[in-house]
Amino acid sequence: MVTANVIGSGPNGLAAAVTLAKAGVEVTIYERNAIPGGGARSVEATLPGLMHDHCAGFHPLSVNNAFMVDAQLDTFGLEWALPEIQYAHPLDYGRGAAAHRSIQHTVQQLGDPAWQVLFGPLARHFAKLSADVVHPMLQLPQSPIGFARFGMRAGLPANVLAKAFRTDEAQALFAGVAAHAFRPLHTLGSSAIGATLLAAAHAVGWPVAKGGSQAIVDAMLKALDHYGATVVTDAHISSVADIPTADIVMLNTGPAAAADILGSAVPDRVASGLRRYRYGSAAAPVSLAVEGGIPWLYEPARRAGTVHVGGSFAEIAVVEAQIAKGKMPRNPFVLVGQQSVADPGRAHNNIHPVDAYAHVPAGYPHDATELIIRQLERFAPGVRERIVARSSRTTADLEADNPNFVGGDIVSGANSMDQLLFRPRPALNPYRLGPARAYLCSAATPPGAGVHGMAGYNAARSALEDLER
To answer: What is the pTM of this model?
Structure first.
């Protein structure tokens, strides 16, 4: 029987393992921590019984993607839930904007037809678009015309694309999704991630896993048990010599770490490319237990699963540029997850779990809790008094818990134009690490960060195709 070792049990490692095990490969997963799951775990971060998502909370690229369809995780207990409003963006004085599933409803509330012109075609053809964006950019797209249409928007700096909107609300609503890229909004390609997430919001929504992101991990672990795979925890692997020999090695690690683990098994040119991989700005998260939820002045934000906090487009553009230069602003961009809006069972006794993080410079050493709460107070006065418990992590805490988050970079690599196109290195097959049947399957490979499993699935499919040859 063909055997495979998977190093790292984050969502992409588990996705690779499920894909291989379902194909009949004998799979063993090695995880350095005591609990598998990586960035898709859920934990009692504030109060007993109140589950907070350890990192990722919403999963817009997970619905009906190739891995989810192939793995059939719904048969292993995974259920999705959608908020009424996918994401919202409060502005000063109780103003704001909201993204609904219906793009027509969104445009009507924005009063800006450019939103429909720019993003309507992407949303209508999202199934074909998403099938292309989750694969390496050097491959031929399945839908060339649709992908070209996407590229005309995605390749632009976000501040250029935002000029198409005539209202502050539309510009701000776009700024919030563009900022997910953790890069300055005046740089080439800074519209790409925002345009993708925005199209997903109107096409399929921004769902949560019922019960928390841990439910995705639990479903994959059940699938692995069903297919006879083995998970070994508390297993720190520093070299392939630490584990039994296998026909396939999957590494859910950073690129440089993969080169270190494989050693001489990686050709020098490949190892050099992996070590040149760059990381970007960081996140500083805080988990809050909030009585009654956050009292946003902009009422639709109370019904939104995700809320982007940062003010106007111009304000967000300034602070994102500061962070990229290593300067910590006093009013950072903050992403707020209100998972109980979509999944009411997550709240207990009217106490709601809220997961937020601020964008901070790489390696920022301080706790950002007070900065985050000040930003929340700006748009939701009185929220401080509703917080009954809190916990926080620094960038160092993030990296210590998950070495793939270098310097606190939770998207596992800078989303610069070159790395958007050619991560982790320029190659027709960026997963394959030379002739030794070793493959990189982490979020450093296409399509990048997010609990969608596609990086692991793509890497595993590459390994299976190589076996067939």
So the answer is: 0.95
Q: How many CA atoms lie within 13 A of 357 on its CB side?
A: 26
Query: Could you write out the DSSP letters of every residue in 79-138?
Result: -EE--SEEEEEE-GGG-EEEE-S-HHHHHHHHT-THHHHHHHHHHHTHHHHHHHHTS-TT
Alpha-carbon distance 469 to 374, whole Å? 58
Torsions phi, psi for 230 (to 5 deg):
-120, 135
Q: What does DSSP say about strands 85-90 and 96-99: parallel, antiparallel, or unpaired?
A: antiparallel
Q: Which two tokens stand for residue 336?
A: 């707020």
* Tokens describing residue 99: 């993204």
Q: Does a structural domain hold residue 136? A: no
Judge whether 48 lies within some domain.
Answer: no
Total tally of structural domains belonging to the chain: 1
Ordered alpha helix ranges (H), 141-209: 144-154, 158-161, 168-178, 192-203
- Domain span at residue 249 reads 3-40+61-78+209-277+413-468
State the distance between the two ends of the chain, measured CA to CA, in whole angstroms.
Answer: 16
Structure-token match 């934990």, residue found: 43
Determine, yes or no, domain membership for 215: yes
Rounded CA separation 270/171 (Å): 41
Distance of CA 130 to CAs 23, 63, 67, 190, 202, Å?
24, 10, 12, 18, 13
Q: Is the pLDDT of residue 138 over 70?
A: no
- 180-208 per-position pLDDT tens digit: 999 999 999 999 999 999 999 999 999 99
Give the integer Cα–Cα distance in Å for 86 and 200.
10
Residue 432 and residue 422 in contact, taking contact as beta carbons nearer than 8 Å:
no
Helix (H, G, I), strand (E, B) or coil at 359: strand
Is residue 66 in some structural domain?
A: yes
Q: Is the pLDDT of residue 298 over 80?
A: yes
Q: Tell whether the torsion through CA atoms of 299, 303, 304 and 308 is positive or negative.
A: positive
Task: Tell me the β-bridge partners of 282.
Answer: 360
CATH code for the domain of 445 = 3.50.50.60
The string of pLDDT tens digits covering residues 361-410 is 999 999 999 999 999 999 999 999 999 999 999 999 999 999 999 999 99
Lowest mean pLDDT among 145-154, 319-328, 353-362: 145-154
Enumerate residues 6+ apart whose C-beta is below 8 A from 136: 427, 428, 429, 430, 446, 458
For the range 128-131, what are the long-range contacts, defined as Cβ-Cβ under 8 Å and sequence gap of 24 or more? 129/196, 129/199, 130/61, 130/65, 130/196, 130/200, 131/66
From residue 379, alpha-carbon distances to 109, 342, 372, 393 in Å are: 20, 21, 11, 23
Q: Return the structure tokens found at 250.
A: 């999957």
